[in-house]
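Summary for the steering committee. One of the milestones for this cycle was to obtain a three-dimensional model of the protein with adenosine monophosphate bound, which we needed before selecting residues for the alanine scan. The sequence and ligand used are listed below.
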Amino acid sequence: MQIIHRVSEMQRWSDAQRQAGKKVAFVPTMGFLHEGHLSLVRAAKQAGDVVVVSIFVNPMQFNQQSDFAAYPRDDEQDRRLLSELGTDVLFNPDASEMYPDGYQTAVEVEKVSQPLCGAHRPGHFRGVTTVVAKLFNMVKPHAALFGEKDFQQCVVIKRMVTDLNFDLEIVAMPTVREADGLAMSSRNARLSPAQRQTSLCIAGALNTAQQLVGQGERRAATILRAVRDTISGQDGTRLEYASLCDPDTLEEVEKVTRPTLLAIAAWVGEVRLIDNRVIG
Ligand code: AMP
């Protein structure tokens, strides 16, 4: 596996692959890799001839400096895992090359960035779309893979790719969960054993909602009340939002009459967790 730090080197490598007729598949990450990330890398190997994985903890998408500072890192293990999977390039750009002195450009997707996480993390999606647009210009992929664990992020990035005419395909992959249902996340490492147990209420709430719909309940307010009760019933949790919305526009619905996104963000102690499921 080749490790590339410089933007110009990354671009040269991708130009050469494209000229040789190879299809470049790309998985952007912030590292501290787990099975969720690795499922994207495996899918990338199917989607392309060569695979680039980036690791960059992007300061611009953290609305709290403390969250950025506490973000877990393990470079050695990440390298080992990626190399074992047959990744061709690990792209690990320096922050000084990403945002050099004088940097002043941002990419902002308007409507679909506003609800859900956008309403609670000001500037977050602006940071995401800016760094992803930059990474696309550096890696020049034919396909880029993202996880539905970050459902809104998938919607926002697809919108950006369409609106800015990026010549690549976005592939959204299903959420990978622990055996007990907790969605895998780099942030799970910050949970104490007791908090780890408590956090199961989030996946539990998604299941409860699906069961209600299965029993014929259609009213969003009733379903969301059950979700709130499931999460707030646990000590040490704070529900940030629970929303039932259209999976394409992210506009809230009042009735669940077709496949509907249930998106949840909740704090377990100092750790913010998100999860979602399309129900209906
Ligand atoms: P991150 O390192 O958190 O920025 O995530 C990098 C990519 O991995 C994003 O496309 C995420 O949506 C995806 N991802 C993170 N967790 C999971 C998961 N549990 N299942 C599937 N994809 C995931």
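Key point for the committee: The CA atoms of residues 84 and 167 lie 30 Å apart.
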